[in-house]
Amino acid sequence: MPPSANGPAAPPGGTTQRITQRIVAFAVLVALLALPSGVWARTAPETFADLAEQLLPSVVNISTTQTVEGNAGIELPTLPPGSPFEEFFKEFLDKNQPRAQKRKATSLGSGFIVDDKGHVVTNNHVIQDADEITIILQDETRLPATIVGRDSKTDMAVLKVDPGKAKLPAVKFGDSDAIRVGDWVIAIGNPFGFGGTVTSGIISARGRDINAGPYDDFLQTDAPINRGNSGGPIFDLAGEVIGIATAIFSPSGGSIGIGFAIPANSARPVIQQLIEHGEVKRGWLGVRIQSVNEEIAEALGLKEPVGALVAGVIPGGPAEKAKIKDGDVILEFDGKPITQMRRLPRLVADTEVGKVVPLKVWRDGKEISLKVEVAVLDEHEEKAANTTKAPEKAMGSESIAGLGLSVAGIDDKARERFDLPDDAKGVVITSIDPAGPAADQSLHPGDLIVELGQEEVKSPAELAEKVKVAKESGRKSVLLLVEGQGGLRFVAIRLPAKG
């Protein structure tokens, strides 16, 4: 067709469609690139080979030898109870049983090099009670190791080897706080003695408490780790250590995809102190604390159950000097929010001794600011934190219907019946209504109610009056300070509706 007199012919329909598609595709690409980086899902790497090749020389096998007494011996056959042969076999075995002999037992674990001076990090349980420790490098070089320091509370240990003229490749620590659930990780270790084993997986969870110690804050991973992996590193995709393999959950003893690692940010200060001092000096606040549940939060006027409730202040400790009181809720420590009670001990322990730290505390329905100088924790102070002064004299006995319990004054009869100390104060619980509101609060006869609403209780009549006032004022619950076998603790009891 000849060109139009008014200009060139329009392009074919197919060309116009392709141009439109490209414009739309470009616009979509621009829009996607404008999204926050967190929106993009990280795809699995094609291979971990380059990363493994780079990191393997920094991971070591740890072989320990321990001298133990014992022998295989001869076992007594299984006999029916009262069998006449029982004494015969027992006498025979006593005469012919070989004498106990000393023998050497070996065990294996993992570790990793942290500097060019020959320091190696592992778990304390890997080298505990060992008489001899040998570090085995990737090239099978065997080096005797000595213990620089160890810490049973975090299950960490630092060893030292003399590398001679050899250069030891050290790893770098990453930021474990930045690792997210779902991020890829690789584990390298010595499972069942098969050294230099690399496995991969993701971070399955954070902040796990597995009751291994007072500072539990484990990363959970599904990267297969087994016996022998203990003490080995968990790496992120940047090749930095973000965790130290420590434990597995397994009914069979083998990996089922639930492994736990000490976060690097928790391990790093411990390792540094062990290298510098051979021991760990932890911060100490001098308080006994407990969790804040919904009832306690409501009784204290908190919008949500957060923070650490101070159930006791150790006399002469940093908290007492900082004017922290029983019943305070610590909401923030050194600028870090206390979302859960168990977060506070870890933060305090990791704080430099002597440092003055700002606190935010909830008291009398409002937030106040304090400052505390962190002291050093020692065994005596740690034990004191788990004990309390025994809680004056009161009289009479009364059933407190609003609480679902009965109490009595502290007299000689009560002291004898419940084995109370001479300086006990408050009122003593004599019975608890199984259908009452106190029944679900783990209270027991013999426990002492020392305070209600952070005011002293001196007699059953006074306790009953305080409960009555709380009900008439529309309070939904009351907060008791109770002294039991476990020491002082706060208990919130929901009051029955008025009617």
General description of the model:
The protein has eleven helices and 28 strands. Strands 22, 23, 24, 25, 26, 27 and 28 form a seven-stranded antiparallel β-sheet that branches. 20% of the residues lie in helices and 33% in strands. Among the domains are: 106 residues, Beta Barrel (Thrombin, subunit H); 102 residues, PDZ domain (Pdz3 Domain), CATH 2.30.42; 98 residues, Pdz3 Domain. A hairpin with a 4-residue loop joins strand 22 and strand 23. By secondary structure, the chain is an alpha+beta fold.
Report a brief summary of the structure.
By secondary structure, the chain is of the alpha+beta class. Helix content is 20%, strand content 33%.
In total, the number of strands is: 28
Report on the biggest sheet.
Answer: 7 strands, antiparallel
Mean pLDDT over the residues: 81
Poorly predicted residue ranges: 1-11, 37-41, 380-396
Helix/strand/pairing category: alpha+beta
CATH class of the domain at 172-277: Mainly Beta
What would you say the CATH architecture of the domain at 172-277 is? Beta Barrel
User: With helices defined by DSSP (H or I, 4 residues minimum), what is the helix count?
Assistant: 11
Helix content: 10-25%
Strand content: 25-35%
Name the overall outline. globular
- The CATH superfamily label of the domain at 172-277 reads Trypsin-like serine proteases
What is the CATH topology classification name of the domain at 172-277?
Thrombin, subunit H
Distance from first to last alpha carbon:
96 Å
**Radius of gyration over alpha carbons?**
32 Å
